[in-house]
Specification:
Chain A: This is Fe-S cluster assembly protein SufB. Chain A: It holds the Pfam family SufBD_N. Chain A: It comes from Aromatoleum diolicum. The complex is a heterodimer. Chain A is an alpha/beta fold. Helices cover 24% and strands 35% of the residues of chain A. In chain A, helix 7 packs across helix 8 and helix 10 packs across helix 11. In chain B, 39% of the residues lie in helices and 28% in strands. A six-stranded mixed beta sheet of chain B has the order 6-9-10-3-11-12, sandwiched between helices. A four-stranded antiparallel beta sheet of chain B has the order 2-1-4-5. A two-stranded antiparallel sheet of chain B has the order 7-8. Classes of the chains: A alpha/beta, B alpha/beta. At the A-B interface, helix 1, helix 10 and helix 11 of A face helix 2, strand 7, helix 3 and helix 4 of B.
C-alpha cells in the first residue's frame, strides 16, 4: 500500500494555483446588515423605488428565517453582522468607459488568471462581463449584440436602462421568500449580469461572465437574470477563480433563467473558488440558488457545471418544466479534495405534458473531501407522459473521503417514466498500476482516469470551457484523439 | 538481458519467492510454469514493480541496471512490458488514448519526438491487423465490456505497439478459446526478435504448442525447481506438477537442516 498511497496523496494535495491578492483601494460600507445598509446600497446604485421596496421586503422576510442545516455540510456559525455587504473598486467611481480606462491592477489580475479581456474578445469571440468584487468593470461586445436587440449588461445597468424588464422578471423564478440565502441575496445583492434575447434571435456568441472575489471579508451577492424570449437561443458561461484567502467568505448568488416558447438557454459554469488550504482552513462558502423556468411550450434549459472550488458548495441548479414538451438538463462534475464539502444536485419539477429531463452527476472525492448528490425529480399530476433519466456516479480517491447520494423522487402521474442509476467506484491501485506499467506517470494516470470519468459532462461544455475544465482537473487535452 | 539472483519476496509478510535465480538472454523465449500458488504471478509483478511485493533479499539486473530502484513507469519506459492476467477496466478513457499516452511516454523517455494523431493511427492500425481485432475496440473505453479474449488480445496489441525489450506475459493463455489462443500465439511469435526477450508465465502447456520456448522453468516452493528445454513442458503435461513439488520439498527440507 505504502508508497502508492503516499504518491496519490501528493498528487491530490497540490496547492491552489490562483492564490494571490490584488491590493486595491476599496469603497466599502461598514460591516453588518440593517435596513439602513440596504437603503445605502440602493441609494449608491441610484435604484428606482421598486427595487428598494423589493430589497426591504426581502430583508424583513429574511429576519424571520433561520439558516438551513439539512445539507451534509458542516461549518462554524456564520456571523452575518460581520460581513461587508457592499464594496466596489474605488477606480470604478468615475466609471471606466473602455478597457483602457480600467484599473491596470485589475487587468493584471485577469492576466494572471489567464483571462486577458482584450485577447479573449478577439480570439474567442466571447463577450465578457467581468465582475470584480461587486461591480462590473468592463462589458464588451455590447454594440455588436445591440444590433440584434440583445441586451447583455450588468444588473445595475439593467435596473437603470430596462427597469420594466427587470420588474417583470426579477424574482419570478426565485421569489424573495424562496430560501434563507436567496432571500439574503434579494435584500443585499450588489450586482450581476442581465441578459435578454429578443424573439427569434439566436445569440451569435457565447456570453460569459468572469466572477472573482477579492476584497477582504466581502460577501458576494450576485444576481443574474437571463430571459430568452420566444424562439431565442443563448449559451451563457460563468467562470470563477478567487485569490488565496484566510477567512471564509460567504457567497450567496441567485441565478434566474426564463425560457419562453421554443426558447433555449444553455448555462455552463466552471467554478474554482478558493477551496481552503489542505488543512481545511479558509475557503469560500458557496450557497447558491440557481433555477430555470421553462415557462412556455417547447422550451429547453440545460445546466452544465464543473465545481472544483469552494470550501463548501451548496447548489442545486433546477428546472421548472411548466411548458408542454419542455426539456430540462443537468450535467455536473463536482470535485472535493482536502476538507472540501459539496452538497449539490438538481431539481426537475415536471408540470407540463410530455416534459423531459436528464440528470447526469459525477462526483469525485479525494483527501478528506465529502461529496453529496441531492436531487429531486417531481412529476405533478398535470405532467402526463413526463420522463426523467438520472445517472449519478461517484469516484473515490483514497480511503478518507466520502460520497453520498440522496435521490428524491415524487411521482403523481401514473404515465410518467422515471429512471435512476447510480454507481460508486474507486480509482483503484490496479488502475494506477496498469497505467504506470505502460509508462504513464502516476500523476498523468490519475488525470487520465478522472477525465475519463467526467467525459460525458465535459462533452456538454462549449469547447473553450471544456479546455478550462479539463485543466482544472489537472488534465491536458493535448493528445486527445477523436 | 535479465538476471535475477537469489530473489526473496514477501507479500503481506508471507514469503512467496524464496531464493529464485533466473537468467534470460536477449532473443530468448522462456516459459515459467508451475502449480497455483508457486509464485509465478508474483515474479511477473515484481518485475513490473507492483506495490505490495516486498523484496527482502536478492537482486534483479536488467540491462545491467538495478531494476528494483526503478518506479513502475520508469521500468516500462526502459522497455519492460507486463501483459496482465486480469487487465483492468478504465471507464471513459478511450483505448486509443491510453495507448497513445503510453507510446508517447516511452518516446519522450527515449528523447524521440512524440507521435501525432495521424502517425499514431497508422502505427496502431497496422498492429490491429496483426492481432485480428475489430477497430471499434480502439474507441471503446479501456477493457470496458471487452470479452475475456478481447482483453487478452488487447494486451498483446499494446505489447506490439510498445515494442518492449522484455515482455512478460502473465497467464495470457488462461480463459482463451483455441482460436483466440492461436491469435495471441501468433502475435507473440511475431514479436520474437534477437533484441527482445519474452517470458511466458503459464499454468498449462497448451500455449507452448503454439509458441516454442527456448527454456522451460518449473517454479515450486518459491524457487526454480527444474529447468529444461521445450520437452520439459510436455513431460509436465504428462506427469503433472506433483513430482516436481515433492522434489522441491525434499530439497527445501535438506536446505533447512
Amino acid at each position: 500500500m505504502g508508497n502508492q498511497a503516499v504518491q496519490l496523496d501528493e498528487l491530490i494535495s497540490q496547492d491552489y494555483r490562483h492564490g494571490f491578492y490584488t491590493p486595491m483601494e476599496v469603497d466599502a460600507l461598514p460591516h453588518g446588515l440593517s435596513e439602513d445598509v440596504i437603503r445605502m446600497i440602493s441609494a449608491k446604485k441610484k435604484e428606482p423605488e421598486f427595487m428598494l421596496e423589493w430589497r426591504l421586503k426581502a430583508f424583513r422576510h429574511w429576519l424571520t428565517m433561520t439558516e438551513p442545516h439539512w445539507a451534509t455540510v458542516r461549518h462554524p456559525p456564520i456571523d452575518y453582522q460581520d460581513i461587508v455587504y457592499y464594496s466596489a473598486p474605488r477606480s470604478q467611481q468615475d466609471g471606466p468607459q473602455s478597457l483602457a480606462d480600467v484599473d491596470p491592477e485589475l487587468l493584471r489580475t485577469y492576466e494572471k488568471l489567464g483571462v486577458p479581456l482584450h485577447e479573449r474578445e478577439l480570439l474567442a469571440g466571447v463577450a465578457v462581463d467581468a465582475v470584480f468584487d461587486s461591480v462590473s468593470v468592463a462589458t464588451t461586445f455590447k454594440a455588436k449584440l445591440g444590433e440584434l436587440g440583445i441586451i447583455f449588461c450588468s444588473f445595475s445597468e439593467a435596473v437603470q436602462n430596462h427597469p420594466d424588464l427587470v420588474r417583470q422578471y426579477l424574482g419570478s423564478v426565485v421569489p424573495y421568500t424562496d430560501n434563507f440565502f436567496a432571500t439574503l441575496n434579494s435584500a443585499v445583492f450588489s450586482d450581476g449580469s442581465f441578459c435578454y434575447i429578443p424573439p427569434g434571435v439566436r445569440c451569435p456568441m457565447e456570453l460569459s461572465t468572469y466572477f472573482r472575489i477579492n476584497a477582504k471579508n466581502t460577501g458576494q451577492f450576485e444576481r443574474t437574470l437571463i430571459i430568452a424570449d420566444r424562439g431565442a437561443y443563448v449559451s451563457y458561461l460563468e467562470g470563477c477563480t478567487a485569490p488565496m484567502r484566510d477567512e471564509n467568505q460567504l457567497h450567496a448568488a441567485v441565478v434566474e433563467l426564463i425560457a419562453l416558447e421554443g426558447a433555449q438557454i444553455k448555462y455552463s459554469t466552471v467554478q474554482n473558488w478558493y477551496p481552503g488550504d489542505k488543512d481545511g482552513k479558509g475557503g469560500i462558502y458557496n450557497f447558491v440558488t440557481k433555477r430555470g423556468d421553462c415557462r412556455e411550450a417547447n422550451s429547453k434549459i440545460s445546466w452544465t457545471q464543473v465545481e472544483t472550488g469552494s470550501a463548501i458548495t451548496w447548489k442545486y441548479p433546477s428546472v421548472i418544466l411548466q411548458g408542454d414538451n419542455s426539456v430540462g438538463e443537468f450535467h455536473s462534475v463536482a470535485l472535493t479534495n482536502h476538507y472540501q464539502q459539496a452538497d449539490t444536485g438538481t431539481k426537475m419539477i415536471h408540470l407540463g405534458r410530455n416534459t423531459r429531463s436528464t440528470i447526469l452527476s459525477k462526483g469525485i472525492s479525494a483527501g478528506h473531501g465529502s461529496n453529496a448528490y441531492r436531487g429531486l425529480v417531481k412529476v405533478a399530476k398535470s405532467a402526463v407522459g413526463a420522463r426523467n433519466y438520472t445517472q449519478c456516479d461517484s469516484l473515490l480517491l483514497g480511503d478518507r473521503c466520502a460520497a453520498h447520494t440522496f435521490p428524491y423522487i415524487e411521482v403523481k402521474n401514473a404515465s410518467a417514466r422515471v429512471e435512476h442509476e447510480a454507481s460508486t467506484s474507486r480509482i483503484g491501485e490496479d488502475q494506477l498500476f496498469y497505467c504506470q506499467s505502460r509508462g504513464i506517470s502516476a500523476e498523468d494516470a490519475v488525470s487520465l482516469i478522472v477525465s475519463g470519468f467526467c467525459k460525458e459532462v465535459f462533452k456538454q461544455l462549449p469547447m473553450e470551457f471544456a479546455v478550462e475544465a479539463q485543466k482544472l482537473l489537472g488534465v491536458s487535452l493535448e493528445g486527445a484523439i477523436g | 538481458m535479465l538476471e535475477i539472483r537469489n530473489l526473496h519476496v514477501t507479500v503481506d509478510d508471507k514469503p512467496i519467492l524464496r531464493g529464485l535465480d533466473l537468467t534470460v538472454m536477449a532473443g530468448e523465449v522462456h516459459a515459467i510454469m508451475g502449480p497455483n500458488g508457486s509464485g509465478k504471478s508474483t515474479l511477473a509483478h515484481v518485475l513490473a514493480g507492483r506495490e505490495g511485493y516486498v523484496v527482502t533479499a536478492g537482486e534483479i539486473l536488467y540491462l545491467g541496471k538495478n531494476l528494483l530502484e526503478l518506479a513502475p513507469e520508469e521500468r516500462a519506459r526502459e522497455g519492460i512490458f507486463l501483459a496482465f492476467q486480469y487487465p483492468v477496466e478504465i471507464p471513459g478513457v478511450a483505448n486509443i488514448y491510453l495507448l497513445k499516452a503510453a507510446v508517447n511516454a516511452v518516446r519522450r523517455h527515449r528523447g524521440e519526438q512524440e507521435l501525432d494523431a495521424m502517425d499514431f493511427l497508422v502505427l496502431v492500425k497496422e498492429k490491429f491487423r496483426l492481432m485480428d481485432m475489430d477497430e471499434s475496440l480502439l474507441y471503446r473505453a479501456v477493457n470496458e465490456g471487452f470479452s475475456g479474449g478481447e482483453k487478452k488480445r488487447n494486451e498483446i496489441l499494446q505489447m506490439a505497439v510498445l515494442e518492449p525489450r522484455l515482455a512478460i506475459l502473465d497467464e495470457t493463455d488462461s480463459g482463451l478459446d483455441i482460436d483466440a489462443l492461436k491469435v495471441v500465439a501468433n502475435g507473440v511469435e511475431a514479436m520474437r526478435d534477437p533484441d527482445r526477450a519474452i517470458i511466458l508465465v503459464t499454468h498449462y502447456q497448451r500455449l507452448l504448442d503454439h509458441i516454442r520456448p527456448d527454456r522451460v522453468h518449473v517454479l515450486a516452493q518459491g524457487r526454480i525447481a527444474l529447468s529444461g528445454g521445450p520437452e520439459l513442458a510436455q513431460e509436465l503435461e504428462r506427469r503433472g506438477y506433483g513430482w516436481v513439488e515433492a522434489e522441491a520439498q525434499k530439497m527445501a527440507g535438506a536446505g533447512a537442516q
